[in-house]
């Protein structure tokens, strides 16, 4: 992973040198300076650490145990992304705006409402888990309430603090908590405590997450202006709620789509099938590594160029992002499709049966990498509603396709459904992006612009 990161940065530097006279190249040079390099380093090390954790758990728990753990973690992760009710990205924008504008009463109010919304979301999630458990059987219900819910609670607040730290210009620290420190500490805990069943692994996750939530709370408190606690609280509940709801719909659809196959297989299949699919899915996701490093770096510049009407520069920069993404993804794609059995051997001999799943998902992620950060780009240019509609439609289509195909082809069917919907959605996203940034288009007010003005 570190080698891949170095390759991407080397290519970026060379392209910027060749195109030194162009505005897009100058923008890209600025993007790789300062704190963004630390975010890139954290993500690189985090991916390597997380992959190592997956291998350790797969070897210790076996296919069925690893599948049960993956199912529980998938449910908890979905809840952690949705329980804040859209306040993850919203908190980043509001905290940043109110801190820089010294509007500390609104800063205090936004933080209170963000944590309150997360608590409300968790209460709703707990109710839904009870209902869901009653519908699928007592054994599954016990797993959801005993393992998935406690993990979801601590993960939700850890995710919220990650985005708050971004707003406080400590994005490198915010990324390090869940992406690097969490898997690293869980690995350390697994070396101390003998893990023989998935429940033990879940509880180690819970303890580590709780410690990181407390640590992140201290970090946030230290970075807030000293006078914020003494000032009266101000709220803009209606404006904040409308902004959060727009983000929630798109984010919810994306998070559910990414994990639909695991959930479907956990319901209609077996732990063995879930374990095989999860190993292939985790591995194939490495193809998106370069894109996921570039996206948080490029997103603010996409918004700025669009609002200023500099569409030619924006389209030029976006094409450069796509080039870097596809170049960074090709080595992983070739490795996973040419030598799938050798790669899956890392998890253990039993996981070699997932080689066809790995090849199918790898092709889907390659197409996604070639499309660049298209979903994020739509949100940055004020097309949140379009993104939300397409993402929700993709979720429904993916759920239906995965359910039908999984019953006939198992994990391979779920992979075909997921990869197909993934390619379809990204194709639509990039078409809409380039239509919205056509040079003939006149600069005007957008939903994103209005939201920034209100902040």
Shape: globular
**Main sheet makeup:** none
Low-confidence stretches: 1-21, 444-455
Number of helices: 18
Helix/strand order, N-terminal first: HHHHHHHHHHHHHHHHHH
Give the radius of gyration. 22 Å
Work out the number of β strands.
0
The helicity comes to: over 70%
* Secondary-structure content class: mainly alpha
> Proportion of β residues?
under 5%
Gap between N and C termini, in Å? 38 Å
Tell me the domain tally.
Answer: 2
Query: What is the residue-mean pLDDT, rounded to a whole number?
Result: 80
Question: What does the model show?
Answer:
The protein has two domains: about 1-35 and about 245-455, no CATH class; about 70-235, no CATH class. With about 450 residues, it is mainly α. It is built from 18 helices and no strands. Residues about 1-20 and about 445-455 have low confidence and may be disordered. The radius of gyration is 22 Å and the shape is globular.
Which features characterize this protein?
single chain, 455 residues, mainly alpha, 2 domains, 84% helix, globular, disordered N terminus
Sequence-ordered SSE layout with sheet pairings:
Blueprint: H1 2-18, H2 23-31, H3 35-82, H4 87-100, H5 104-136, H6 138-167, H7 171-192, H8 198-223, H9 237-268, H10 271-284, H11 289-307, H12 311-338, H13 340-344, H14 355-370, H15 374-380, H16 384-409, H17 411-436, H18 447-454
Helix pairs in contact: 1-2, 1-12, 2-12, 3-6, 3-7, 3-8, 3-9, 3-10, 3-11, 4-5, 4-6, 4-9, 5-6, 6-7, 6-8, 7-8, 9-10, 9-16, 9-17, 10-14, 11-12, 12-14, 14-17, 15-17, 16-17
